[in-house]
Amino acid sequence: MPKPTPLLMTVDVVALSVRPDDGLCALAVRRGSEPHKGRWALPGGFVDKDEPLDKAAARELGEETGVSPRSLELHQVGAYGAPKRDPRGRVVSLAWLTALPASTEVAGGDDATDARWFPVADLLKPRKLAFDHATILKDALALAGRELEDSSFGTRFLPRAFTVSDLREVYEAVWEQELDAGNFQRKVTGVPGLLKPTGRTVQRGRGRPAALYTAGSATTISPPLTRVG
Amino acid sequence: MPKPTPLLMTVDVVALSVRPDDGLCALAVRRGSEPHKGRWALPGGFVDKDEPLDKAAARELGEETGVSPRSLELHQVGAYGAPKRDPRGRVVSLAWLTALPASTEVAGGDDATDARWFPVADLLKPRKLAFDHATILKDALALAGRELEDSSFGTRFLPRAFTVSDLREVYEAVWEQELDAGNFQRKVTGVPGLLKPTGRTVQRGRGRPAALYTAGSATTISPPLTRVG
DNA sequence: TCAAAAGTGTTAACTCTACACCCATGC
DNA sequence: GCATGGGTGTAGAGTTAACACTTTTGA
């Protein structure tokens, strides 16, 4: 049994949002220091001593992008630890997924000279993201898709009150497919505790006003939503 | 941006097996050194410098339990990094899930004075497992159940050639529920590429001989197997 | 001949998809 | 009125759970 080798651990956050003009976007920051200074990367940084891993992810997201919502639902995507993935030495990254409302304003800070929302397709272009962050983003997108199937994760993309159409647009953006509006309506309103009616309605352009809901207490959707219809 | 604090990283492996008398079991080792010397724990240990994380998990499993199958399918369960989880300091554990055939012989080695299969219910008893390994085991069991739904992971519990009943017993053990034999048969044999008939049959006690299959090339089951029926 | 396990057939219940249709609003 | 999006109704297709039934063996 050899003496253990210490290593460095970072947390990186894939923060997704569905934005009116650009569709599904992820938050990226421009790196303010080496390595990959000046390139775009996922917000993240080193875990502090005695800091829980999820708290580290929330802290780094806040420091580098100015995002600090009241409650952040963070899902572990996975650990990325290929030996040469970071030129600084052995750095293992723990990736996290979260979703933010489209209204979320971002601003570079700390070690990030800039922070911006990018359509995910842009970020997945070769050599756009530093390190192995494109791989992380791909895995996070897959996880997001699975979360939508059987959890209330989709509501995390939306403001406190939202319509069923708002929620459907989130699903369509993440799943990259259109859904039947009527069937979707029935399905999500039929899950006990998923959506809590507010009694209020909202008018958006033309058409009948839509009922406003808030997220209910249910966190799982059973049976899962399917990606057809 | 404070100077990064190095930390220690371990890999821990939840190796599951469905055993004739004990049902669903996990592999545990008796710790040969402090902390928790003499207690049972999941096999695992420190990640070496320049060692990929999955390789570290496979290596530790081999060193501590004597298990070294030609191919090991390892699934990441998650990272566990509560600040006080290990008295040696800041140690983050990355947990992995794998499945082994019931025929797998184990023997303590390296830093483990003993290695044994335990029914999972035993290992989940309070204070049975060292560190936060009971939590890790619970999460790994949940992941195993999900893997069975939509992947070929179940075949990893079985020897190269197996019957549909063998596979069903795996599902019943992991899901903790009985399944209709006829419906299960139809479902799994109907998934294209999941099972490859060998043309041979095997007689087990009474009853009609069962056809032997090997795992096919398909890794996903769509639509997923459901836990009813 | 009986019991047991493997494997197939059958059907009623259920679910889902596709689309029709009504509702409530702005223009 | 008419277009548009919200929301409900519904029929046909497809799927599934439950269980009957046949097959093939050991005892």
Please give a handful of descriptors for the protein shown.
homodimer, 229 residues, alpha+beta, Nucleoside Triphosphate Pyrophosphohydrolase, Arc Repressor Mutant, subunit A, 7-stranded mixed beta sheet, 3-stranded antiparallel beta sheet, 5 helices, DNA-binding, hydrolase (chains A, B), Nudix_hydrolase (chains A, B)
Biggest chain contact = A-B, 29 and 29 residues
Average pLDDT number of chain A: 95
Kindly report how far apart the N and C termini of chain A lie.
Answer: 56 Å
How many structural units, i.e. domains of chain A? 2
- Dominant shape of chain A: elongated
Total E-strand runs of chain A:
10
Can you characterise this structure?
Two copies of one chain form a homodimer. With 229 residues, chain A is α+β, with helices and mostly antiparallel strands. Chain A has two domains: 8-149, Nucleoside Triphosphate Pyrophosphohydrolase, CATH 3.90.79.10; 151-215, Arc Repressor Mutant, subunit A (Orthogonal Bundle). Chain A contains five helices and ten strands, in the order ββββαβββααβααββ. In chain A, strands 1, 2, 3, 4, 5, 6 and 7 form a seven-stranded mixed beta sheet that branches. In chain A, strands 8-10-9 form a three-stranded antiparallel beta sheet. In chain A, a hairpin with a 7-residue loop joins strand 9 and strand 10. The termini of chain A are far apart. Chain A binds chain B through residues 1-2, 4-9, 33, 45-53, 76, 78-79, 81-83, 90, 92, 94, 110-111, and chain B through 1-2, 4-9, 33, 45-53, 76, 78-79, 81-83, 90, 92, 94, 110-111. Chain B binds a DNA duplex (27 and 27 nucleotides) through residues 163-165, 180-183, 185-187, 189, 201, 203-211, 223, 226, 228-229. Chains A, B: It comes from Nocardioides marmoribigeumensis. Chains A, B: It is an enzyme of class 3 (hydrolase). Chains A, B: InterPro entries: Nudix_hydrolase, NUDIX_hydrolase-like_dom_sf, NUDIX_hydrolase_CS, NUDIX_hydrolase_dom, WH-like_DNA-bd_sf, WH_DNA-bd_sf, WHD_NrtR. Chains A, B: GO terms for molecular function: 8-oxo-7,8-dihydrodeoxyguanosine triphosphate pyrophosphatase activity.
